[in-house]
Design a protein that fits this description.
855 residues, mainly beta, 11% helix, 42% strand
Length: 855
Amino acid sequence: MLFVYANCLKKRMMLNNNSPKHYFLLFFLILTSSVCAQNKASGKVVDEKNNKELNKVDIFINNDKTPSLTTTSGSFIIQSDSIIHQLRFSRKNYTTETLDITPENAENIFVQLSQAKVSDIQEIVLKSGKTKYKNKKENPAYAIMQKVWAQKRNNGLEKFDTYSYKEYEKTQFDLNNLDSAFMKKKIFNKLDFIFSYADSTASGRLGLPIFLNEAVYENYGRNKPDKDSKRTLVAQKTSGFQDNQVITVSAKNLYRDINIYDNTLNYFDIGFQSPVGTDGFGTYDYSLMDTITIRGEKAFQIRYQPKRKDILAFQGNLYIDTDTYAVLGATLKSTQKINVNFVNSVYTQVEYDNPDDATFLPKKLVTEFEMSPFSKKKGAKSIIAKRSVDYSDYQFNKPLDPKVFKRTEEEYEDKFTNKDDAYWTKVRPDTLSKAEQGIYNMLDQLQQTPKFNRMVKLFETLGSRHYNAFKGIDIGPIFSIYGRNEVEGDRIRLGARTYFGLNDTWRAQFYTAYGFKDQQIKYGVEARYMFNKLNRFMIGAGTSRDIVQLGGQLTSGDGVTPQSSSTSTFFARGENISLSSVNKTSVFAAIEPWKNFQIRVDGVMQSIKSAIPEKFNLMYYKDGQLRQTVNDSHVTISLIAKPGAKFSQTGIDRYQARNLAPTIVLRYTRGIEGLFNADFNYDKLQFMLYKPFLIGSMGKLVVNFEAGKNFSTVPLALQNIIPANLSYGLVPNTFSQLNYYEFVTDAYTTLQLEHHFNGKILSYIPLIKKLKLREVAFIRGAYGTLSDASKAINVEGFKYSAPSEHIYYEYGFGIENIGIGNLRIFRVDFNWRGNYLDRPDISKFGVKAGFQVGF
């Protein structure tokens, strides 16, 4: 309008013989027009690499401290009451761009932002070499770290009455170090189109994304008046092997949340020494590099590296605020000699906000693993597993509706997390790269390729131990097909189960077995149904007829289809003649009134007799009569707690991710005489605690404690048997140098301690340390009593005793991580029997070996 009016005025001036006052008015309007043009600017902001439009860009006018506009799309229009002579464009994880604005360039501005390193550290001055100090007190980095320790901060969420925040998580797997020779391999025939989605890496080789999972969580918590918290998955988008239970569980098993202030950082349930821990100077050398600027704050840059390269430790940089001595950020990179199975390298980057002198809040966590099944050589074919988590929208001390802490059925439905593309565009802190976006298209094509589906099926079969024969029907477990024992001779076992998906609410399964020596058919069948995913209320029933090794476990369940590992053993010391023939029918109901806390009730009817009466005697006296079959009916109430456990599915069968969560079981059993012709009334109480502990840089201690008591006199078939392991394989929570039924108890207590040193000792031995072996030490003990009445009820009760005179113990050490390259899954244990050495037919020393798949 102003421009039109100025032109009209110009024509009028020409008609009025160019009056001076009209010239002045025209000059004033043109000047005003110029000023107005600089009060407004418009244009577009894109990613410099792929020219994709960027949202969430903060635009600052002139020297303003706060943004005048945060964009919601790539295009922007910004206005101001004052003259705009400069615009500053800032976005998280991108370099900041500043443009001078004139009337000529105020429109159609085209801004390209380049991605920056996380934290966008500036003004770094690196110092070469390492300064040697007579003692750590002369090291200026030591004085800084002392102040960090003196003001050791806790997670700020603990100090507020209530809090809430959002969490965006992205997990991605990439095939790394691809080359032309690899891509031409026969296995990729008819699959070569996938390499069109590959992208160049920093090494110059190709990386191919194969799995991408995005998830958004809402977190709520309160500390007063009572403590409570909830983490709700509100959105999830997965490409790749989302239907493959093995991949899903593996992804969840990889990552742990870490607190840089802790002395020990948990990776793969293995302890790494933290560079910010109070005993860090025992592991690391620190060097003060410079004072730099990081996210607008002045910070000390401290470089650290381990004193010894062959221990579980990191190298990298710490960024410490010069005023508050808070950790603003840190990088943690493993050494080239990292001794973790399947892992070539570990890299983590953390960022923290520090609202006050006592607390911190997580801002960003990036963890990247390079993994290879065979080789640790640089450039070997590998998988890059990267997880990044952004924490945002922190809110504190705002009233929270109590309903937000309650679980709802809706949260457990698959559709609850389904969101459209517009939602993901809005919630992502950063746009997906071209390669990441291509994963969705690539997997759509792959799933239409029969060859690819066959490869996935093979991997799934090996991981789940079941082969999907038909829609909804799996055959297996495949590793239980063949066995051998004294009763059956060679034994063939075939089984099947229903399986429609990860979150099935019902499952039926059965097996049948045949022994070529006894020429008898055995079987087991079981069905379970879950009514509610929220409280996991389920019921089930089953029946079986089989040859069983009783006493294989102390705190054992009442399920039908699981098979004792000691029933079919064809590589063991001595003959396994203490087998029982068991006919069992059971029903159960279970519910989880609270997360990770289950109440389960089992009802069991069973008959038990010796499978080899001429060699193994289970006969007993009842009311003066000699009997060979025990008829038993009992009800068991179990309380099972797994605080902190994480599961990958919500169906009737869940796969628990590995972590340091304990398992606690309290179980009461009541035998009911006369019910279905049962022979005995009895009461039994049992307790079990299993818990791994990280012991700083010394490794991991695994504790298994069990205790129980029979309050009534019962025959051998219903007694507590201290579990033995006659096989040459590794069987957890058993005693390697005991014989079956060597110790029988009314009341018992057992404790098993196993400590994994993670190679800390062997790494000091020249030559040996190159083998990257890891040492294990263990000790096992059992104490129990057996009453005279319990001995007298059995025909051969005089043969049985409890470890009541002394605590029975055995001890030993093991060597794990045996193998080549990255494939180190073999373990050998050397076991010694500590006492009760005067007994006949005992084993004082034994060697056990087996595969131990883990990091």
